[in-house]
Design a protein that fits this description.
alpha+beta; Arc Repressor Mutant, subunit A; globular; 327 residues
């Protein structure tokens, strides 16, 4: 890593798997495996990454479905934000389905497995362990445990998550520009600090509702609890009453909270989450080995007629067209 105020940009576009693996190990983590599970002829790796002191920010895509296995990060916390597509992530016994509405968060301990579809272009943010822990330690009036027991994901639709990811994307765009303001060392250092402090404000942790002095528009814990169980197992036949019980409130309270903080009812959100996962799986499935009904049932849709109508309304085509059009 170079000096903390001097951004260093590294980029690669290649169809060579070994070259892509070497790049990712050098820029991110050494104990890393990348294996294609889709058509290897469609492998088209692209990465545009900027290192700025304790943070490494970039956009990464593979062009075909891959599986990534990473050993314990040890020295960093990491956030993955799909800009397109849906990422299936397993870390410390938790399954997270990340998409443009929800980020996945990784602690320094515990192996990571990622099912990364070729349709998924990722915003990747690595933050050195000490930098994030110092930031939270400065904001909290109590001793922290290291590594911090952060939540496995956070919301990007509204609140601090939306602001943080917009900040990261703007920083990356500015650092790519040859004469952007963020390429100036003093401005780069300030922006770098904003990314770290913004992440400390955004991630969930057990040290109180919010860091002292960093109050922000957090979603209520009732909403977070319901979102967490839906993202962990979206195929389960939840009812609004069951989600309200998980959240610890009445049905009407949960519905009102979702409309205020998510912009839709719990069941509408769950249906959209399931549809997005069906779409992602249909987009990479072999029509000779599976069917629309198999995938729909797997993601919790039991009435195929209503499912097909909802799918067409969301994606503009019937589900059979998505499956049929795959190479």
């Amino acid at each position: 890593m170079t000096g903390g105020d001097v951004p260093v940009r590294v980029a690669l576009r290649t169809t060579d798997m070994e070259e892509a693996r070497a790049f990712c190990r050098k820029v991110y983590y050494e104990p890393l495996r990348i294996d294609p599970v889709g058509d290897p002829d469609r492998f088209d790796f692209s990465a545009d990454v900027v290192e700025l002191g304790p943070i490494t920010v970039g956009e990464v895509a593979y062009g075909t479905d891959i599986r990534v296995a990473i050993g314990a990060l040890e020295t960093a916390y990491h956030v993955l934000v799909p800009l397109t597509g849906v990422l299936r992530s397993r870390h410390r016994g938790m399954v997270v389905l990340a998409d443009p509405t929800r980020a996945a968060v990784y602690r320094p301990t515990g192996d990571i497995e990622l099912d990364w579809p070729g349709t998924c272009r990722m915003l990747s943010v690595k933050v050195e362990r000490g930098a994030l822990e110092r930031e939270l330690d400065a904001a909290l009036d109590q001793r922290l445990v290291s590594p911090m027991p952060l939540g496995a994901s956070f919301d990007l639709v509204d609140g601090p998550g939306r602001t943080w990811v917009a900040l990261v994307r703007l920083l990356l765009a500015e650092l790519r520009a040859p004469e952007g303001l963020a390429t100036q060392p003093r401005m780069a250092a300030r922006w770098r600090d904003m990314v770290v402090s913004g992440l400390a404000l955004t991630v969930e942790h057990p040290y109180g509702e919010e860091p002292a002095g960093l109050q922000g528009p957090y979603r209520p814990r009732t909403v977070k609890r319901a979102l967490d169980v839906m993202h962990a197992e979206p195929w389960r036949p939840y009812t609004t009453r069951e989600l309200a019980a998980v959240a610890g409130v009445g049905v009407r309270v949960l519905q009102d909270a979702f409309r205020q903080h998510v912009g839709m009812s719990p069941m509408t959100y769950l249906r959209r989450l399931r549809l997005d996962n069906v779409h992602a799986e249909l987009s990479r499935a072999d029509p000779g080995l599976t069917s629309v009904s198999d995938i729909a049932y797997r993601w919790g849709f039991t009435h195929l007629g209503r499912f097909a109508g909802a799918y067409r309304e969301r994606f503009g085509v019937p589900p059979s067209a998505t499956l049929r059009d795959q190479p």
